[in-house]
Amino acid sequence: MKLIKTTFREEGNLLIMTFEGKIDSPYTVEVEKDMEVLYDCEGRDIRLDLTNLRYISSSGLRLFLNLLKHAREVGSHVEVVGLSGYMQRVFEVTGFTRLFKILQSQT
Questions:
Q1: What pLDDT digit, counting tens, does each position of 71-84 carry?
Q2: Would you say 23 and 60 are in contact if contact means Cβ atoms under 8 Å apart?
Q3: How far apart are CA 25 and CA 27, in angstroms?
Q4: Rg (CA), the chain
Q5: CA angle, 8 as apex, 56 and 42 as ends, to 5°?
């Protein structure tokens, strides 16, 4: 049974990936492959919608960090939306709230 589902869409110059379920260590390779489309972001910004993400492992966080590093190198920005209480705590403890632009809603 698959624990994570990703969905990709484009809205103008914004690349949006939605995550549902859990990014657990055994699934990070699969999620990384799904996220490859986001690396073609030059001139466009990225939104990670974590509204329905219930858990993320350290290897999953590393995927987000690698994406952020690449996006910055090509002049793009990465924003995160939909942090639940749990995910907000994870982002605070890891310092990700200082690295990523955190949005409260899909505006």
A1: 999 999 999 999 99
A2: yes
A3: 5
A4: 13
A5: 100
Rounded distance between C-alpha atoms, residue 104 and residue 65, angstroms: 20
If 0-12 CB within 10 Å is exposed, 13-18 middle and 19+ buried, where does residue 36 land?
A: exposed
Q: Which residues pair with 48 in a beta bridge?
A: 17, 80
CATH of region 4-103:
3.30.750.24
Rounded-to-integer distance, Cα 3 and Cα 18, Å: 14
Domain residue ranges in the chain: 4-103
Query: In sequence order, which residues have a C-beta less than 8 Å from that of residue 77 and are 6 or more positions away?
Result: 45, 46, 71, 101
Q: 44: helix, coil or strand?
A: coil
Sign of CA pseudo-dihedral 89, 93, 98, 99:
negative
Q: List, for residues 19-57, the tens digit of each pLDDT value.
A: 999 999 999 999 999 999 999 998 899 999 999 999 999
